[in-house]
Amino acid sequence: MTRILVFGAHPDDAEVYAGGLLVRQCRLGAQIKIVSVTDGSSGHQSLSPERLKQIRRSEAAAAGATVGAEYVTWDFRDGYLQPTIDVREAVVEEIRGFQPDLVLTHRPNDYHPDHRAVGTAVQDASYLVTVPSVCPKVPALRSDPVVAYMCDMFSRPNRLRADIVLGVAEEFHGLVTMAACHESQFFDWLAYHDKVLDEVPEGKEPRRKWLAGRFEQLHAQRAIFFEEELTGLNLSSPPKVELYEVSEYAGSLSDQAKQELFPGDLSSSSSPAGS
């Protein structure tokens, strides 16, 4: 059974950046654990941090339940995360305890300091998971898992290298369903932050359709940003796509493992996947 561990900075990051892959792997029977490293307590314009912390923990658990994944939130403070020894040790112990084949996380260069901190902590932990004297209360692994960075559209200091390309049209409904569980975010805080709060409809299904439109815009932006990497690939129109970069600081990715961990990868083929 494939085991996948996701380290996102906040509840809802996994859906935004890797939802299609997670939905696909859950459908194929993988065991998936999603970790929000922060408590999500800062992401709201009016709710108190303590109240929001509880709401976001509940929303995350509900999102995971839609596909059969475990979804947990840690207690590091949202908006204040740094790649400290405490964070690194928590990551090392989590990787050792879960023993994943694949770890997904943010790149160390990103717009959000929490994202950068998580990416750096995972990078720093990648070697240390095999060192017995580090975090000795959890037995060290004999080899590193594969670590891959989730899709982003930042160009400095460098763009994401598209080692993996997935068409996720077949998983799109599932990833939107997961995301819609984060009601306090997509229908409130993020809508407020993006100045579209007045556009959010009432009712569960109208809201889900509205959110699907927002995700369609995101995927369209990805297709434009990665136009060169996607040229010649058989994708849906309009494309719904996720791209991943394999970290050089962790385990290597064989061709066989590539198909097991990223089923339907299009990066070296023009055959359809989820399109």
What does this structure look like?
- By secondary structure, the chain is of the alpha/beta class.
- The protein has a single domain, classed as 3-Layer(aba) Sandwich (Rossmann fold).
- The protein has 9 helices and 7 strands, in the order E-H-E-H-E-H-E-H-E-E-H-H-H-H-E-H.
- Helix 1 (13-27) packs across helix 5 (172-180).
- The chain starts with a strand and ends in a 14-residue tail after the last helix.
- Residues 270-275 have low confidence and may be disordered.
Question: What is the CATH top level name?
Answer: Alpha Beta
Q: In CATH terms, what is the architecture?
A: 3-Layer(aba) Sandwich
Rg computed from alpha carbons, rounded to a whole number of angstroms: 18 Å
The H-and-E topology, N to C, reads as EHEHEHEHEEHHHHEH
The fold-level CATH name is Rossmann fold
* Largest sheet: number of strands, sense, barrel closure: 7 strands, mixed
Tally of discrete structural domains: 1
Q: Helix count, per DSSP?
A: 9
CATH superfamily: LmbE-like
Give me the secondary-structure topology.
Blueprint: E1 3-8, H1 13-27, E2 31-38, H2 49-65, E3 70-76, H3 85-98, E4 102-105, H4 113-128, E5 146-149, E6 164-167, H5 172-180, H6 183-193, H7 204-225, H8 227-230, E7 241-246, H9 255-261
Parallel strand pairs: 1-2, 1-4, 2-3, 4-5
Antiparallel strand pairs: 5-7, 6-7
